TrEMBL record:
This is Precorrin-3B synthase. InterPro entries: NIR_SIR_4Fe-4S, NiRdtase/SiRdtase_haem-b_fer, Nit/Sulf_reduc_fer-like_dom_sf, NO2/SO3_Rdtase_4Fe4S_sf. Residues 24-70 form the Nitrite/Sulfite reductase ferredoxin-like domain. SUPFAM superfamilies: Nitrite and sulphite reductase 4Fe-4S domain-like (SSF56014), Nitrite/Sulfite reductase N-terminal domain-like (SSF55124).
Amino acid sequence: MSRVRADACPGVFAVHDAADGPLARVRLPGGVVTAERLRVLAACTEDLGDGDVHLTSRGNVQLRGVRGEGLAGRLGAAGLLPSPSHERVRNVLASPLSGIHGGLADVRELAAELDRELCAKPALAGLPGRFLFAFDDGRGDVAGEGADVCWRAVTSSSGVVLLAGTDSGLVVPRAGAVSSLLTVAQAFADARGAAWRIDELADPSALLPDGPREVPQVRSNRADPTVGRIGQAVGVAPRFGRLTAGQLRVLADFGDAVVTPWRSVLLPGGADVERLHEAELSTDPSSTEITACIGAPACAKSLADVRADARALVPVGARVHVSGCSRRCGRPSGTHHDVVADDGGYRVDGRWTPASGLADALARKARA
């Protein structure tokens, strides 16, 4: 594949120049963030950003409107930038509920181990910022998120390697999961040419290391609820994935957290739900049904203030993503109603409707 522009995936040292100011993305491998680091992020966005932290569809966080100096130093001092040379390639998903509720294998330490090993390999600092690793504990949640390379548990001690979401047939014990994924990543780095993702290669299977094979299988994917009470844990859904500094501090009061790829935050140790509600943090699972990109005026490419329009919508029993342009930033990977701003209105799953008729159009689809 021929590229006409360089990979501009943002980080902290290489920010994106958005309409509302520089945007810095902070990677959280496995989505894990300690209470102390939540407080650091809250202070950073108050002092240097727009006052909010924005969750991403890869379980990372972003600060918008970054101004002044010192962000990298403060994040680095908190351990959020363990390797400046690797900061944009530390894209690692892990089943958020692993080790907490359900699943076949606990993959939490695998994500942390991969991050350490990745940062220790200078050659992998050159991976594209879009390259994505994942560890699925067997339930099939992050396996459906389109990772370039994923280890998916099939028992408590063994799993298979997926390439671009497809079972490769390579069977790898849990103890070898990290090394296998890094071997694939190195092979991709050596062979990629101008490719950014594994599915852009003619033969992704050529990246696989030697090992026992089985007939590839199609396994079902699902996203278990990460909002509400889940066993001892409590999950919250910030509206449009946006957390104020004050809300971050409330979350930090309940201990460490896990940011999910579905723009929710899981509190494994539990929380006082009444206090969460007082902070305007929803624990209603239906509140995750309607998502939206940042939209105008923060994004110069957006054709509408999509979040203002999305606020007027009510859940229809299915996922809805509202985008300001055809890039569809932040859209979910699974089945959803595709709502895209276009010519003074929106296209709902391809059919144009005026902005004033958006709610009715979605309601009709729900009844169909």
